[in-house]
Each structure stands twice: as C-alpha cells, then as structure tokens.
Specification:
Strand content: 25-35%
CATH class: Alpha Beta
CATH architecture: 3-Layer(aba) Sandwich
Distance between the termini: 43 Å
Number of domains: 1
Radius of gyration: 15 Å
Length: 117
Amino acid sequence: MQLRIEAWRAGFATLFADAPECSFRLAGFADGVPAGIIGGDAVDDAVVVRYHLVEEGFRGLGLGGMLLEELVTLAESSGFRRVEASVPPGDRIAKLTYESSSFKAVRIVLCRELLPG
C-alpha cells in the first residue's frame, strides 16, 4: 500500500468536513484514499496538536506516525521549539505512536468534574 502526506488544500474540506481549522493541517492518503489527518495550532513557541486521527481501516500501516513526523518537520522548519500533544487516559496506541516519534511525557493533568455534563 502506498502512503503519502500532503499539505492541506481547499479541496480536502469535503474529505475531512469535520476537521476544525488549524494553523497547520496535513492529510494522509493510502493508495489515493483519504485515510488520516493531523492538525495543530501555534501557541507561543510550540505547535500544539489539536487532532490526529487515522480512519479505522487504515490503522497499523504507519500513517499516523508519518503524519506526526511531517507535522514535526513542518513545525521545526517554521522555527518552533517543540510540538506538544495530549493523549487521553488509556489510549495506549496513541501514546505509543507519540513515544515512537521521541515524544516524552512532561506533565500529567488531573481533573475533577464539578457539574454533570
């Protein structure tokens, strides 16, 4: 299977209609089929990953890692000092994807909900 990453273009809006606007967006394709997306925003001297997903039928091919590495390269070439990402508790696959790209945990955020939502 051939995988490729492309910078976001206006035509992709119909492919990933629910993806929010971000400063940095990349789309991933597997054999020409839209299969994943990553988006991040500039916050101070970092690019913060806002979303990073690979469609279920395309997981395990390395596309998530490719998207992440391309975002890191883009952030670095744009002069940012780091890329930050949050992973929900229990999402071991996401955690391993980031760790395999040299991400390290730097803080743990704990939360207590006060109002039912």
